[in-house]
Amino acid sequence: MNWPSMTSKVIHLDGRLQEFRQPIKASHVLSENPNCFLCSSETMFVDSLPPHLPGHEELQLGQIYFMIPISKSQTPLSLQDLCELAIKASTALGNSEMGYTAAKTPEFLHINGVRHGCMIPTNFDLVMINKVDQ
After folding, report:
1. In a domain, 3, yes or no
2. Residue 30 lies inside a defined structural domain of this protein
3. What's the alpha-carbon Rg for the chain, to the nearest Å?
4. Per UniProt, what is one Pfam family of this protein (predicted)?
């Protein structure tokens, strides 16, 4: 099987995918986007603030990062926010030239007519994003 080479991936506000084949500092990526911060897809959770990737840290190969407007840095992420970011990432990866296949449009889970989450197809599996009421 021929896998795409390992890259760090940045999903921009407009949905554009930018890939880096070698480690690069977050500050370098942010220098072209002064009103934004980077957030790793693995550190984003419902009802929590999106953690800023420090400028001195290097983007890790194999990871996906989102460009987020600074204006949203003090706003907790909603389920809808995470679903929209997942859709944006799925679309960007599907459109990339690295050999990923486009995924279908995400489906929303409704229980008694109320939206509870969304199912996001990824390149490897189907991921369910769900908000748990506490």
Report:
1. no
2. yes
3. 15
4. PADRE
Which pLDDT band holds residue 93 (cuts at 50, 70, 90)?
Answer: confident
Closest of 102, 122, 96 to residue 5, by C-alpha: 96
Tens digits of residue pLDDT in 15-60: 999 999 998 999 999 999 989 999 999 999 999 999 999 999 999 9
Count CB-CB contacts under 10 A for residue 56.
8
Q: Domain tally for the chain?
A: 1
pLDDT at residue 124, rounded to an integer? 38
| Cα-based distances in Å from 41 to 35, 37, 113 | 19, 13, 29
- For 115, the domain range is 8-130
Gap between the Cα atoms of 122 and 90, Å rounded: 6
Is residue 87 assigned to a domain?
yes
What is the per-residue pLDDT for 94?
Answer: 81
Q: Is residue 2 part of a domain?
A: no
